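> tool_call: predict_assembly(chains=two)
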Amino acid sequence: MIKSGVGKSFVYLFTGLFVTTFIIINLAGLFFLLTLFTQVAFADAAEISQVNKNCLTCHQDQKKYLVKGGVHEKLNCTSCHMSYIQFPHSKDINIAQEIQKSCQMCHAQTAKEYTVSVHGDEKNQNEKGTTCWSCHGSHDIYKIENPEAKHNRLNSNESCISCHDGRVVEGYNWSFHGVAFNNGYKEAATCIDCHGSHSILPEDNPASMVSIDNRPETCAQCHKTARPNFAKGSEHATPFDKTNALPLYITLQIFIILILFDAVKDSSIAIFDLMRKINSRKVNTKEKHSRDLGQ
Amino acid sequence: MTAKNRYYVPAWVQRFDDHQRWQHLLLAISVLMLIITGFPIKFAYTWWAPHVMSLFGGFKNMLTVHKMFGVVMIFSGIYHLTWLFIKIPSLKRAKWAIIPSLKDVRDAYYHARYLLGFGKMPKYDRYAYLEKFEYFAVVWGVIIMSATGFVLWFPELAAIYLPRWVISIFRVVHSFEALVCLIAVVIGHFYSVHFNPDVFPSSPVWIDGKISREHLKHEHPLEYDEIAAENIARGIVFEDEEPVQLAGRFKDSIVLQSVLLIAYIGIFAWILVSFVPMLFVFG
């Protein structure tokens, strides 16, 4: 029990300070806990730039395009959709052309390679288009190491197949590379391993990765030594391709005939032997045995 | 004491020696495993292939097992060749028994007639024409599969000598010869040694190398006569009972005969339907 007035003041002071600190710390902790579980909302609120908020005033449905976790996370809508900085927006903006230019602004070297490739050449554009985002995606571009990235090596085949769906895909899926890759052996060659990505050139262009002169080196990326013999033959051909792979087709036919010959020979023997046994069931065993041995 | 019958051929005749049985076992196991690990690659697009692959822990592991058993198969072939070169000079009888002759062509003709219901069964010597065919089919198969297999295993080495289009051909040869082997083994060989009611469930020769007197007389009567003649000349007689064996016990079973007949007709029809259209595909 404290008797003196000064003593009592100290007690009141310390108690007051202690309680206040206690309350503040608890409140802060509570606050922290709250923010932990609502971080996204808070991040959203904190991270959406003023520029983007402006766009979202009219384009609320585009909010889903705010890239989360992609490499372009920190960019604004207008970093790529540059002409739309002006408001009201001009009516003759060609979005496709504009975006190509936007990508070029940062990715100039790649864009240069791409322009001289078979996909970059304007003559080869079709309705599906071969723009940057045809293979890389648009609002969901992840780092290439990310397994969700469209242009990650493991996913890249899908982009190519979206247009080149026909003989080349059939040939690839039949080939050992295709069978292996499609069944989990991911070290096997994909489209871009042989053809490249930004600088894809046609076979007859001497600079192409798949030109006759360069093919041995392309194969040697995995098959260690560049053998000139690797270039002597057609790829993407199945044995049913009489036009592009006649020797293969002939080999196939020879073996089908062998298979059928073997099947006819062995099946006939079994079938006729069994039929004979069933037919001769009426005869008793000893007689049958003697008759069979020709005695 | 009941009177026993007298024979000039023992109840059990040693048909194959230890080495031959080991060679056959190694070949059988390796071919079986090669089929199991190889066909999921050839038929990768089917519903069952991914399941078989996952049994081995994935494509790469299954391929490794495939290569391992390829080596085992080649070893069994080398074992056989070595054994041939050592054994042949020391044999008294049956030296060239496996070599085909005109008799085999005649036997094939008479056998076909017999199967169709005319005439008598031809009398075979130590190796029936079908067994000789099978032996040389295995020789052909092992050579082809191992040669093409090695090219596929080491393409960069093969490319020192072979152009790409030949390596492509080797892949088709490898995967289709595998089908020829499968049919020859499962339909041809398995009928003659397992499913033929005369030996069902299994001819025991591959296990202990011995064939019973009765089966020898039925399947290889000329060899039976030869052994008997030898023993008569030496004055050797056997007084024993016919051995009791599982093989052939069900040979008069109508259930066995008809189930097998239906199965073989079904399999034959399935093969025809699967492969004949391939003759008419133009790419």
